[in-house]
Model the fold of this input.
Amino acid sequence: MAEETAVEAVGLRKSYGPVTVLDGIDLEVARGSVFALLGPNGAGKTTTVRILATLVRPDAGRVRVAGFDAVRQRREVRRRISLTGQYAALDKEQTGEENLVMMGRLCGLSRRRARGRAGELLERFDLTGAARRRTGTYSGGMRRRLDIAAGLVGDPEVVFLDEPTTGLDPRSRQTMWELTASLAGAGTTVFLTTQYLEEADRLADRIALLDAGRVVAEGTAAGLKRRVADRRLDLTLAGPAAYARAVRRLGATAVLRDPDRMVVGVPTNGSASHIRRLLDGVDPDGDTVERFTVYEATLDDVFLALTGRPADRARTAGQAAGEATARV
Done:
């Protein structure tokens, strides 16, 4: 593991009974970066994080976090990481300040230093005004911010955020994005799991696409999008027969197929000549395409091109069962 690497996993495998949740994944995360593991529910994201955070042992593979083996040197790893899950791990009867002071004491800080650290984090996460309110009275966004703040009391090298914005309203989600970016800006390595394409696109230096326990692609957002094209041309067809003919004519080049809306999408460079050629190929007589729209390529286009289905429809019953078991 190179000195500039914060997290490394090689050949990671995990099964629960007959269900394979992780099927030999490889990951490498640079220090001080934001790395996003992107995939639908049930893809294996939470299981991956639990293994990296030493909570679950892999069936096979090597894992190193912050320079230490996550299986044989778990105590050393735990001293250098924090994990924030999808649900806040806070005492609802204590105030926000009391929660952070308690965490500081658990991390070995003196009472005075724990109070000082709590004050720093409450200010950093815009919670000073609510510091002496019971956590049970906080909004979802406030609890999530406090939960992340609690994980930072010990000044970890690596922060694992497992779907940190799930269930938050758009404003709270935006705030969480800003806080996540600030962590990396301060030199902390952030390992983020998410099912939100925009979240990965906005925050991550590098992204791994996880589907059914396998990494199907990894790279920067821009690099992943270039795998399909800069843009996508969506064609709305006049009816079921026209839609079926278009799908047949486009074959494997169709990265989007939506029979409910009678829409097919194909990669394009966006030039007028290329769009004209695509239209002529699908509708040579000019009477079956009702309209067309050009979109910038998205990570969903990449996921669709690599797996044959959109990210929001990629969950399988078996993977869902495996992920549910992994959360126990």
Notes: Residues 314-328 have pLDDT under 50 and may be disordered. The longest helix spans residues 170-185.
